[in-house]
Amino acid sequence: MPNxxxxxxxxxxxxxxxxxxxxxxxxxxxxxxxxxxxxxxxxDAAELINPCSVISDSTNIEIRTSKHLFLDLPQMQYxxxxxxxxxxxxxxxxxxxxxxxxxxxxLKGRAITRDLKWGIPVPLDGYRDKVxxxxxxxxxxxxxxxxxxxxxxxxxDRWKWYWKDLNTKLYQFIGKDNVPFHTVTWPATMMGADxxxxxxxxxxxxxxxxxxxxxxSTSLHRGVFTDDALKEFPPDYWRxxxxxxxPERHDTDFQWTGFQQAINRDLSDSLxxxxxxxxxxxxxxxxxxxxxxxxxxxxDTAILNKLxxxxxxxxxxxxEVEFQKAIKTIRNFWADCNAYFQEKAPWKAIKExxxxxxxxxxxxxxxxxxxxILGAPFIPGTAVKIYEYLGLEQDVHSERWDSISAxxxxxxxxxxxxxxxxxxxxxxxxxxxxQRRYGGKEAxxxxxxxxxxxxxxITYNDFMKVELRVGKILEAEKVKGTKKxxxxxxxxxxxxxxxxxxGLADQYDPSSLVQKMVIVVANLQPRKIHGLESHGMLLAxxxxxxxxxxxxxxxxxxxxxxxxx
Length: 565
Fold this sequence. Notes:
By secondary structure, the chain is of the alpha+beta class. Helix content is 38%, strand content 16%.
């Protein structure tokens, strides 16, 4: 296989990941020599356009040949394809579509050795001067470290319970650039070994998380990383926001203002507010002890029924590894709890119907306990703090899931006499400082605004003439001979899908748009663009920071053809 060696400057073989250049498939300018992280295409370093050394930035490069060992993936094509197809209904679309793309293109032999001085040496004559390629060696290390763990536990065969037991369900969570290794090359290695190893039950591939409209970069000091993040705010702040914006279906963007809103609005004003109101009222009016529960009124029955439904819904979502949907379901229930407290108005009932007030606070205590258990997988520190404030001695992380709906067994429990707010709000001055410190964009109020003329006003009737509908992108391909044009085939819930042209090839890899739900202007007159007829237009957001960037408006959870009002 070819290897790169920069003459004069580096005087050494460069492994493919130490060579960068422009991807010949999608035009991404920072593609690595083994794979383009933008379009996930498997590459040979010799294919890169304008290659350069990562070590020295030298472009003084020569291709030389070197003898290597290969994984014979073509021989495994049928077995891998059958296995991946069996996962179609349970794998996320990101994982399935990337794996399927590799199979459709046809598997090629994959070199598993490199000309490096560091790494795991190859124990085979003729190759002892080489080391194993990390993506061949590292997954095997998952098993190897399990073996070491078993030895340390004094049960050397214990690792087999995890890796060879047919009852094991193996879950893997990875970025989309690593999906091919976990869905093709590693499973092929395991199948080829034919030694009874368990294959992944679910491979959950995530799209990319960007930072304030651009990629995270340590070299450019752009982005906040774990060590610094934990110095700024408690872990649960980060856990919550990152799960809410997790790139489970498409690339997402970390925004400091979004982080601020999530903490202030969701955690502080919703969850924190409900827990604090409940505890304060019990301390003020019932000497800090949970009152007994009286006859249920309609709002009491409704909220407890809703709680049981939420318990079932979240359990199902967690089993399906739909974590983002789960936390959003829980977030919506925080609002339901506040609405319940507001509707029951115990501050009035305490004067007019004390039995009703006691019932409200008994149920509110139950809801606080339930919210701690529901939230424990996502905001574990907060869950522990809620239990402490509720006066519950048991470990919230050891509670059974079905205990979420348990009600009325805590009468007389003494709660914390002086509970503090669970969350501290973040002010705009803090956000502006964080944006400057970590390379984010300036706060909205200090961004230099574009001078744009306001377009003439239109009437309501004029606006209602525009028909916006949800569309599902079935196909996407770059139009040859153009720089930006993408040809889309979009399902708008009609008998036949439509062809729509969009000039976003410099913003999106066409393959990343497939299966996305978008908003389409559906009643535009057709027009020809580069000889191709376009029957609609995608809605996209033009960024207001002079970056010439556009973000396609996407949605989820609604069928194609749904009208946007």
